[in-house]
Design brief:
Elements: H1 2-13, E1 32-37, E2 43-48, H2 51-75, E3 91-94, E4 107-112, E5 119-121, E6 123-127, E7 138-147, E8 150-156, E9 164-168, E10 176-179, E11 182-187, E12 191-198, E13 209-214, E14 229-232, E15 235-244, E16 250-253, E17 257-264, E18 270-276, E19 279-281, H3 290-293, E20 300-302, E21 308-313, E22 316-318, E23 325-327, E24 330-335, E25 338-340, E26 349-351, E27 355-358, E28 361-363, E29 369-370, E30 376-379, E31 382-385, E32 392-396, E33 402-415, E34 426-430, E35 435-446, E36 454-458, E37 472-483, E38 491-494, E39 502-508, E40 511-512, E41 515-516, H4 520-523, E42 525-527, E43 532-540
Parallel strand pairs: 7-13, 14-16, 15-17, 16-18, 17-19, 17-20, 18-21, 19-22, 20-23, 21-24, 22-25, 23-26, 24-27, 25-28, 27-30, 28-31, 29-32, 30-33, 31-33, 32-34, 33-35, 34-36, 35-37, 36-38, 37-39, 37-40, 38-42, 39-43
Antiparallel strand pairs: 1-2, 1-43, 3-7, 4-5, 4-8, 6-7, 8-11, 9-12, 10-11, 12-13, 40-41
């Protein structure tokens, strides 16, 4: 009877499609109102057009749109590079766990495609590793693929005091209902989601529950018969570290495959695909020590920037003790990848020059998405930031100039920053000689973050040799950024000297707690007017801020 009641409630709720958020108009309203801060101390009102800002935003959009098409052209040359599912009849795929795998002790999940019966979807669990600072005890997750409408039911296995439940990101517009200890909701399209019981006990979610509702697979390689395919079927596989990548190969992790491995390219590689619905686990590398783990390899490491044409799609990476995906090939696609790690230095992902990072989920304890190499698109991603690092890292002592970054329609659903001074949602810790320029952030939504929003700085730090010289950060546009707030630590913008500045930064239609930002005071942001220039806070005429 309880199962029938759960399904009845879900049907009553209806099924909510999870389409992409509408992009901002190419040309914002021509009149702006706000404040501009200049090097030397002058502060002037803004009341009129900003043609240079509009032109910069349009140029970045045109340039990166062309890059996305170019990346897609290269991806089409891969043997198994298609990532666009065709239209097909409703279907649902759930995946078995390897024999002996312990299920989560916090949650169970069932998925139903009407008019069929509920099907169990195995719930994995990863225990917190950096227990001296991690705010969570563990993370549970389930993964399945589907097309057509489905009902999802997430049941807490222990008594709860919750009176409701919610699904993040809020931009997904998923309506959920609590029935007893079960959170029920409908989906009509793929999404990476957090299911949370409310009211939340304490400042942090102690036992996160993630639902990776994947699109159907496409362009699946054969299990046998192709010498350029390494196929890992359902079950447990231990490969160890130092697994070498080769040109023109496909590594496929089928749903239900659990692979312990770390993949590396020794020198340049070309035309490489790593895809599937399986799991890549780096826990076997974990020494249990923050310092010792810094000597461990990354999970996927392609460091040679002369590499070309890389696709990483669909897989889940968990428990990496070091960085997860360093994919510095030109023409890189990282699509619908899920990443969860616990230690400092477990960066989420970075692509090389001309990269597309899209539809990913990142929950790590260092920088989630690095924006270093230029001509990069990061769109439709969801970030749950742990206590260290930044969801969006603009520079970390970069030596080579980088420009044209378009970051849009992304969600930060939690940020657990709490004590590390140099934390922030948007962050640059730049002491390198590079000029990092032309970043367009738009339609970025920040939920449940209360430490610091912006930290954009050029400064000495222990990871950089100052004799190498300094560069600049310039031409950044933050457009239609909304954050819950409030924030405990003021945001900041500053260069290192009058010749190496942070300059031409526009905060356009930014809201904090629903309030529009038209000055540094509104943003609780400290502008260093000795080493920074042309820092402006504006809203467009007609109240386009939201």
């Amino acid at each position: 009877m309880k199962r029938v009641r759960v399904l009845a409630v879900a049907l009553a709720l209806g099924l909510v499609a999870l389409g992409a958020a509408p992009a901002a108009a190419a040309h914002p309203a021509h009149r702006y109102v706000g404040t501009e801060y200049h090097q030397g101390g002058a502060v002037t009102p803004v009341d009129g057009p900003l043609p240079r800002v509009d032109a910069t935003a349009d140029q970045i959009t045109r340039s990166t749109d062309a890059v996305a098409r170019e990346v897609a052209t290269h991806r089409a040359q891969l043997a198994y590079g298609d990532i666009t599912p065709p239209r097909q009849h409703p279907a649902l795929w759930t995946y078995p766990a390897p024999a002996g795998t312990k299920a989560s002790d916090q949650y169970r999940v069932s998925v139903t495609q009407p008019p069929g019966q509920p099907r169990s979807s195995f719930v994995y669990q990863a225990q917190a590793r950096k227990t001296d600072t991690n705010q969570e005890a563990d993370t549970s997750w389930t993964s399945f693929s589907f097309t057509g409408p489905i009902l999802v039911a997430v049941t807490a296995l222990h008594p709860i005091e919750a009176t409701g439940c919610l699904v993040r990101p809020a931009s997904a517009h998923v309506r959920a209902r609590l029935v007893g200890r079960t959170c029920v909701f409908g989906l009509a399209s793929a999404a990476n989601l957090s299911v949370e019981f409310t009211p939340q006990a304490g400042a942090y979610v102690t036992h996160p529950m993630l639902v990776f509702a994947n699109p159907p697979e496409v362009d699946t390689p054969p299990a046998t018969g192709d010498e350029d395919v390494r196929y890992f079927g359902p079950g447990f596989h231990h490969l160890g570290s130092g697994v070498e990548l080769h040109d023109n190969e496909t590594i496929y992790l089928a749903g239900g495959a659990y692979v312990e491995a770390a993949f590396i390219a020794h020198g340049p590689v070309h035309n490489v695909t790593i895809k599937g619905r399986g799991i890549l686990d780096g826990g076997f590398l974990d020494t249990g020590s923050q310092d010792s783990n810094k000597g461990q390899p990354g999970m996927i490491n392609i460091a040679d920037q002369s590499s070309t044409n890389l696709l990483i799609e669909g897989i889940t990476l968990v428990n990496g003790p070091r960085f997860n995906i360093r994919a510095l090939a030109q023409y890189t696609t990282i699509h619908n990848v899920k990443v969860m790690s616990w230690w400092y230095s477990t960066d989420g992902m970075v692509g090389g020059h001309k990269s597309v990072l899209e539809d990913n989920f990142v929950k790590v304890d260092d920088d989630s998405i690095k924006l270093f190499w230029g001509d990069t698109i990061a769109r439709h991603n969801t970030v749950w930031q742990l206590e260290n690092g930044a969801p969006f890292m603009i520079s970390w002592n970069i030596e080579q100039d980088g420009s044209d970054f378009h970051v849009y329609d992304d969600d930060v659903i939690h940020a657990e920053h709490n004590r590390i001074q140099k934390s922030g949602i948007f962050r640059a810790l730049h002491a390198g000689a590079a000029t990092m320029s032309r970043y367009l952030f738009e339609n970025i939504r920040v939920e449940d973050a209360h430490y610091r929003l912006f930290d954009l700085t050029i400064e000495n730090n222990k990871w950089y040799d100052p004799t190498l010289g300094y560069g600049q950060i310039r031409d950044l546009i933050f457009r239609h950024v909304s954050a819950d707030g409030p924030f405990r630590i003021p945001s900041q913008v500053h260069g290192i000297d009058p010749d190496h500045t942070v300059a031409d930064v526009t905060f356009q239609d930014v809201t904090i707690g629903g309030a529009p930002v038209r000055s540094a005071a509104d943003a609780d942001l400290v502008v260093d007017q000795t080493n920074s220039d042309a820092i402006r806070f504006v809203t467009t005429e007609g109240g386009r801020y939201r």
